[in-house]
TrEMBL record:
It comes from the Eukaryota. This is Olfactory receptor. GO terms for cellular component: plasma membrane. The lineage of its organism: Eukaryota, Metazoa, Chordata, Craniata, Vertebrata. Keywords: Cell membrane, G-protein coupled receptor, Membrane, Olfaction, Receptor, Sensory transduction, Transducer, Transmembrane, Transmembrane helix. The gene is LOC103257508.
Length: 319
């Protein structure tokens, strides 16, 4: 019986949803989405290029920023193809196995981004509270280990959750609520005991996000304690200013993430537009805004971008 259910699930076709009630405007709605994706991809690729090519940015803070850009792209890119397939009326169908792979990347990189933000908080703590030991503590080797550990932690944690999906019979509607696959969206369509997935999903969110957010909070408690010990007003402002971009990045990720989770858990019967709106904010806002914030607030990144475009301009003039 389990083999039959598994076979049926793996061969199932699910149907993605665009913007309900606005199907005739999907082509127009796709324009701002396309622009947002382009801004996000270009912004993150620019930061990755600058960090890689500018020797002045070969420091722990900018290595973590490059990790943030990679996780942003990893979280948003898997949704792009299916979103535009729906909005451009190419196809609403998605196979079960493709759906599972898509949700694996979305959720894995979402948890990984949270871990990267924790690593960035620790980076700021060491830079402000232990500046003389900064370079010796955060070596490139340690930074690489932190990045790999963050990715493996998130990926391994998702395996038990997704491994059970092929064994669920989906005898209800196969219509998903979004233009991409989310675990909490698919699990509601299963006509089987999904208690493990529901409980495990809640525990996963609570433990991973809880540990990361607690670590970030504790880091900033120590940072504020250290900053308040600085004698000069200008020194305090300068120290806090180095944390401004990171605080914005934390809020940009956690606020939509918590909002989407609360809506799925406690507002299941609310308007579908609210669910769709929150889901798109959750996946699109961090990749778009993080490069903008770091470009505006971080002098070295801003100078790197200006240097990059000036070089291109000079090269085109010479040619």
């Amino acid at each position: 019986m389990d083999n039959s259910n598994s076979s049926n699930s793996l061969s199932s076709t699910f149907y993605l949803t665009g913007i309900p009630g606005y199907e005739e405007y999907h082509h127009l709605i796709s324009i701002p989405f396309c622009l947002l994706y382009l801004v996000g991809i270009m912004g993150n690729c620019t930061i990755l290029h600058i960090v890689r090519t500018d020797p002045r940015l070969h420091e722990p803070m900018y290595y973590f920023l490059a990790m943030l850009s990679l996780t942003d792209m990893g979280m948003s890119l898997p949704t792009m193809i299916s979103l535009f397939r729906v909005l451009w009326s190419i196809s609403r169908e998605i196979q079960f196995n493709v759906c599972v792979v898509q949700m694996f990347f979305i959720h894995t990189f979402s948890f990984t981004e949270s871990s990267v933000l924790l690593a960035m908080a620790l980076d700021r703590y060491i830079a402000i509270c232990h500046p003389l030991r900064y370079a010796t503590i955060l070596t490139p080797k340690l930074i690489a280990k932190i990045g790999i550990a963050a990715l493996l932690r998130s990926a391994i944690a998702m395996i038990p959750l997704l491994a059970r999906l092929p064994f669920f019979p989906f005898c209800h509607s196969h219509i998903l609520s979004h233009s991409y696959c989310l675990h909490q969206d698919m699990i509601r369509l299963a006509c089987a005991d999904t208690k493990f997935n529901v409980v495990y999903g809640l525990v996963l969110i609570t433990v991973l996000w809880g540990m990361d957010s607690l670590g970030i909070f504790v880091s900033y408690v120590f940072i504020l304690h250290s900053v308040l010990g600085i004698a000069s007003h200008e020194g305090r402002l300068k120290a806090l200013n180095t944390c401004a971009s990171h605080i914005c990045a934390v809020l940009i990720l956690y606020v939509p993430m918590i909002g989407l989770s609360l809506i799925h858990r406690f507002a299941k019967h609310s308007s579908p537009l609210i669910h769709i709106f929150m889901a798109h904010i959750y996946l699109l806002v961090p990749p778009v805004l993080n490069p903008v914030i770091y470009s505006v607030k971080t002098k070295q990144i801003r100078q790197g971008i200006l240097h990059l475009f000036l070089l291109k301009k000079i090269s085109s003039t010479v040619l």
